Sequence to fold (338 residues):
Amino acid sequence: MVDNTGAWEVGKDADGGNVLYQYMDQSMKDTAAWNKSTPNTTVGDFRWENYTASVDVAFPDADGVRATLGVRQQKGMTAADAAYGVGIGPDGSWTFSEYGTVIEQGTVAPSDHYRLAVEAKGATITTYIDGKAVSTYEDPTPESEGRVKLGTDFHKTAFDNLKVEKIAGYTPYADAQLDNMDSAVGYDGTWSRNAAYGDANDWYRSTSTSSTAGASVTVPFTGTGIDLVGGNDGTAVLDVRVDGKLVAKDAGTAASAKRTAAYALRGLPEGRHTATFVLRSGKLVVDAFDAISGNVSGKADTRKAGLRGQGGLDTIGARQLAARLAAAYDGLVRADGS
Fold:
């Protein structure tokens, strides 16, 4: 656990079992101890993608008003820096938030303890309280990776039985990350290379940026897909080639925050590949590349792609592959030109 604010220690519950307590109380509120935020702690790997996080929360302090569980955290030092999170109080009021902005809210029966869970699979985020789904959110520009966060207000709060579990049919994590400055990454055309003294939210404080049509970046990787990570404004239009073959033409990119994917490619055969991203127009900022694991638990839904037996194919990859096949079919021209 990485404690960003608060006093997080293992202690005994009423039954003598070990639980994780956050001990900072009202006497520490507004003192800006450590950081100017409510108590929160972080666990996990930046490369975690599709998973379910769950935890038991309890309120031994009767005045406690909030416990939170967040997923896919990439940067920042507050509970609100988790991309998606659920918060609840002993009165049963709950909220589901995206980067601290409330998306949905409601109430369940009051209690001094609950089991919270957040399932993040692709762009679909589902929140559970005591095993019952209370909200489902489809994010049009999802954060795809990140760690788990626990949070409280300034009252003694207990956490127990934290679990992070794979989701059947979905890739659970990125296998490896290559920085934009890695010697294996090749560039052609005009690029601005910032190798040091950059923003701490850029991996290794480095980026490579181009606004020149025809500029390209080539990266080797092993897996079933690759994410192009970097803070972008969404103007970049790309041609994407894998192993010399065009897989996407005039592909749009997302307006992405730092450490998030501006472009995500999925559905490739599991193995070693080389991807080339050619800038057609706009501005492209490259921070890093995440290679997507083919370690998929359970069966993926491949019905739309019409495929069986492709190793490492997950549900998201199957959807992308189906879309690429449909686009290729739509682009077919009869031999007579009609």
Q: What stands out?
A: The mean pLDDT is 91. The two ends are 63 Å apart (CA to CA). The first helix runs from residue 315 to 330. The chain is about 5% helix and 45% strand.
